[in-house]
């Protein structure tokens, strides 16, 4: 358990606290908030403003790693997962107005090595696509590997079409696999052989993922394995068919 100082009573003013949770090698941390009540920032424009009291969660060392979120008010933060094996919390309070603070539980789990979409760990509503073939039997959620009933199919065979996965958290992505099949109706083979990978932190501005020193656009064939353990600081991934 992790709790704010004095919990369940009100936390003191003028605090700068750090908490660090470290997992053994090949393990990950999941942090689940049970209660959350920090001084609210009524003028908050976006998530993460929080001028008075705040809790920051970092995927790694504080200030030096990707910031997962900055939280205040009474809304319980979402479940948080580390991808670095280290999770840090910085708790700051100012000189006035104290609330009950927070309590959170953490679990150390084995790093998931396979099967995000296939295992259902990524839920249906996290998978969307540019278009879907006309009769709703070829939906984005059917893009999972080894899906036994059809597969996602866009309305056109074009490189404008994409499938998009909202990962919700910072994730270490170790590979992407594609799959195809022979159509029962036409007897033709339909396989994704190459694609372009785009990434985004906000779902609006997309950047083509490139690797290697010369920043060449990647063309991946059939089964793709990205370099060892690539550290992704993006929370969205979009794939589309890529025609050179
Ligand atoms: Ca305060």
TrEMBL record:
<keyword id="KW-0472">Membrane</keyword>
<dbReference type="Pfam" id="PF00431">
    <property type="entry name" value="CUB"/>
</dbReference>
<dbReference type="InterPro" id="IPR050633">
    <property type="entry name" value="Neuropilin_MCO_CoagFactor"/>
</dbReference>
<keyword id="KW-0812">Transmembrane</keyword>
<dbReference type="Pfam" id="PF00754">
    <property type="entry name" value="F5_F8_type_C"/>
</dbReference>
<feature type="domain" description="F5/8 type C">
    <location>
        <begin position="110"/>
        <end position="206"/>
    </location>
</feature>
<dbReference type="InterPro" id="IPR008979">
    <property type="entry name" value="Galactose-bd-like_sf"/>
</dbReference>
<protein>
    <submittedName>
        <fullName>NAP1- protein 2</fullName>
    </submittedName>
</protein>
<dbReference type="InterPro" id="IPR035914">
    <property type="entry name" value="Sperma_CUB_dom_sf"/>
</dbReference>
<keyword id="KW-1133">Transmembrane helix</keyword>
<feature type="domain" description="CUB">
    <location>
        <begin position="1"/>
        <end position="109"/>
    </location>
</feature>
<keyword id="KW-1015">Disulfide bond</keyword>
<dbReference type="InterPro" id="IPR000859">
    <property type="entry name" value="CUB_dom"/>
</dbReference>
<dbReference type="InterPro" id="IPR000421">
    <property type="entry name" value="FA58C"/>
</dbReference>
